[in-house]
Specification:
The chain is of the alpha/beta class. The chain is 33% helix and 12% strand. A 6-stranded parallel β-sheet has the order 1-6-5-2-3-4, with helices on both faces. It binds zinc ion.
């Protein structure tokens, strides 16, 4: 998949690939990976039609992972205890061999893998959408706990994952926790769900926590149907800092263009001011 994105650097200026044909369930695997036109492989690696790839996609996606890895390195080396990696494009929908949902490479997963070399880490995903990519990557592992709060997939993207009964497999059994949220959740309710999630994190005793921050849980966001307030992003940041372990924030989604900057700043400032 990485090679494929890299090969798209050969696209011409102004040219782009839009995945729109996908191998279906019982497609003979030998055929599905090898359309003659290289760029048309997009549908093999991508699971939706939300992404356009051009010659700069690899550079942008790689830079985004670099930003998360710089954050992870500062945390791992003990140089900082709180870092926010302002990643673009986001990553939590990208798996180890597929991309989609505006995500190419999984920034949070790369950081978690790196940090897990030092001991168990937790990822708490507060984006409105389920992080199917992150879940998939660590689904059979116990050294990275994945906890996600998101719109119930019965009504929310990505529809095929994010249900409460997806709890991990093999070694990872019990280390994947999905908390599907009903529509209309505001600050008070969200706080209860988040505290419930953090109780599980505390029990796990990670040495560091990664926050996959989706600003799309904001009440004005056009892609979500829950609504926390702008000051609540400060509270979320403080809640994570209160865990008393290193915190790496990583930016995921967010689509309310008018309020994104303020909501992001609220989270980052609260992180900076935490004790
Ligand atoms: Zn999202």
């Amino acid at each position: 998949m990485v090679d494929y994105i890299k090969s798209c650097e050969e696209l011409k200026e102004g040219e782009s690939v839009f995945p729109h044909v996908f191998p279906y369930r019982d497609f003979t695997p030998e055929f599905s990976a090898h359309p003659r036109i290289n760029f048309k492989k997009a549908g093999y690696y991508c699971f939706d039609v939300g992404i356009e790839i051009d010659k700069d996609t690899f550079t942008a996606a790689k830079a985004s992972v670099d930003v998360s890895m710089t954050g992870a390195q500062l945390i791992r080396d003990g140089k900082e205890t709180r870092v926010f990696s302002l990643c673009r494009p986001p990553g939590h929908h990208a798996g180890y061999d597929h991309f989609g949902g505006y995500c190419i490479f999984n920034n949070a997963a790369a950081a978690a893998y790196y940090l897990s070399q030092k001991g168990n880490v937790a990822i708490v995903d507060v984006d409105f959408h389920h992080g199917n990519g992150t879940q998939g990557i660590f689904y059979e592992q116990s050294d990275v706990l994945y906890v996600s709060l998101h719109g119930n997939p019965d009504r929310s993207y990505p529809y095929f994952s994010g249900f409460a009964d997806e709890t991990g497999k093999k070694l990872g059994k019990g280390y994947n926790i999905n908390i599907p949220l009903p529509a209309g959740v505001g600050d008070d309710e969200y706080r209860k769900y988040l505290n419930g999630a953090l109780r599980k994190v505390k029990k796990y005793k990670p040495w560091a926590v990664i926050v996959s921050l989706g600003l799309d849980i904001f009440k004005g966001d056009p892609l979500s149907d829950i609504g926390v307030s702008s000051p609540f992003f400060s509270e979320i940041a403080r809640t994570f800092c209160d865990l008393g372990i290193p915190v790496l924030g990583i930016l995921e989604g967010g689509y309310d263009m008018a309020d994104l900057a303020q909501n992001g700043a609220n989270f980052i400032e609260a992180m900076a001011q935490a004790e």
